[in-house]
Amino acid sequence: xxxxxxxxxxxxxxSNSERQGEAEVSVAVSVTGRGxxxxxxxxxxxxxxxxxxxxxxxxxxxxxxxxxxxxxxLFKNGYKADCFPEGSQEVVFEAGKxxxxxxxxxx
Length: 107
What we know:
The chain is of the alpha+beta class and about 110 residues long. It has a single domain (about 10-105), classed as Aminopeptidase. The protein has helices at about 35-50, 65-75; strands spanning about 10-15, 20-25, 55-60, 100-105. A four-stranded mixed beta sheet has the order 1-2-3-4, with helices on one face. Helix 1 links the parallel strand 2 and strand 3 (about 55-60). The longest helix has 15 residues, at about 35-50. InterPro entries: Acyl_CoA_acyltransferase (IPR016181), GNAT_dom (IPR000182). GO terms for molecular function: acyltransferase activity, transferring groups other than amino-acyl groups. This is GNAT family N-acetyltransferase. It holds the Pfam family Acetyltransf_1.
């Protein structure tokens, strides 16, 4: 994604694995909270649907300093995670453990 000045501020990537899309979204910290990442994510959802995928997944790595915000954002955009207790959206990263969190959305 580019600004009017052609400055690249974010990108989205969609790969596949057995009819499931794997989404990757990255947006410059200087423009977070302005809807660019959401726009990219929705475009990836549309593309995955066109390709016939039944779901799309995103992995949040705990070393990402914005991991908690990203997980909250994915929940707001329809993603779920099997590793959370029923109805909970709280994530606890245990000290010293770096476990990626996989989020999945049916499409």
